[in-house]
Amino acid sequence: MDALQRHRSLYKGTTPPWKETYRKRCVERLKNSRSRLLEKFRQTGEDSGGSTRSLLVQEVMEEEWSALQSSNQSLPSLWNGNGIRDVYAAQQEYDQLSAFEEIQQELMAQELLILEEYNSSMRYEEQYLNSVLEGMEASGQIICPVCHANNLTVNSHLTSCPCGLYVNTLGRNVTAEVLQNLLEQRMTEHMEDCLHNPTFSMAFNTDGSPNLMISCKVCDYLSVVL
């Protein structure tokens, strides 16, 4: 075994000192780039199910490596036109190949999870809107977004449900069609930045008057529907 081989054997299996910092920063950047990821996903028009092609992982890894390198000049430059594998040949003594592949696989799994949650949330929204439309077609009424069991009573002075929902709409020209549009708008608005299912509830203003609210515990989204 020559000197170079002995040197490499000493570091075989060693975790690179930058690995955990780089991994955490990549994961955080991917999470914070969710809107960009979903925009890419919508542009492709592809279902993520069964797809192994990453949409944003390499960009995230490139961006974070450049940011990490700017604060640590000893780290090598990676993406110079030929891709990430340039670093593998130059830095194998610290088992870089294994580290990068591990981080890449974790990011791809995280990306897939985000897309699966998005698809699930889209199906939920589609199912709810379909139920609203079916309810209107069948009886001219809207299924209550709070209990999902009863039809709302919508007239010139109130919107109510046997579950306890009651909103005074006197003088506001609220019809079933107007309420349907408001529900669709709020659902879509929330979906632009969050993948989780929102909930509807009744809340009271400072003057005691009730409102129909939409909220999300995950992203802290909160908006008045009616």
TrEMBL record:
GO biological process: protein import into nucleus
Localisation: Nucleus
GO CC, one annotated term: PML body
All residue ranges annotated as the RPA-interacting protein central domain in the record: 56-132
Classification via Pfam families: RPA_interact_C, RPA_interact_M, RPA_interact_N
Annotated keywords: Metal-binding, Nucleus, Zinc, Zinc-finger
RPA-interacting protein C-terminal domain span: 143-223
Annotated RPA-interacting protein N-terminal domain residues: 6-43
Taxonomy, superkingdom: Eukaryota
Record-level Gene Ontology MF annotations: zinc ion binding
This protein's name: RPA-interacting protein
